[in-house]
Amino acid sequence: MIGGLIFLIWALASRVETGADAMVQKLGRLEVTARLVERPDQFPQLGAYRYTYVLKYKVIGVHRQDPAGKYLLKSGDEIFVGHYKPWLPRSQIKDPDWGTAPRRHAGSVRGGRCPRLALDYELQNLAPSGALDYCFPPNTNRFFAVWANRTTY
Question: Are strands 142-149 and 78-84 parallel, antiparallel or unpaired?
Fold first, then answer.
């Protein structure tokens, strides 16, 4: 009985996916795991306009701090992350603004998910075709998601 319980705990614990891989660990300037806190029920349908949509996250772990020291994040911090066309898998984005640089999103953006994110700042400069940013306070902890991997957190 006890042996079965130990095996069950071990089996469940071994299924933890941290999202760590070579791409998320080298791209961007910062790397965090964060829980998606707020997202709209439906993203705006703006026809042919290609945009980056900013979403609110709460940091649950910092894996790589900003080497320049501009943003020193810690667990519990709120961050606002821009995702280019967040309703589409990255493999389906075929437009000149997205380009050929390596970028990936962890699938559809859903509340409660905790992706591991490679981030860069200067969101307004990095966002293809501009950003839709309805998050407050403005200009606080704004990042662009360069790479994202799913986790089991």
Answer: parallel
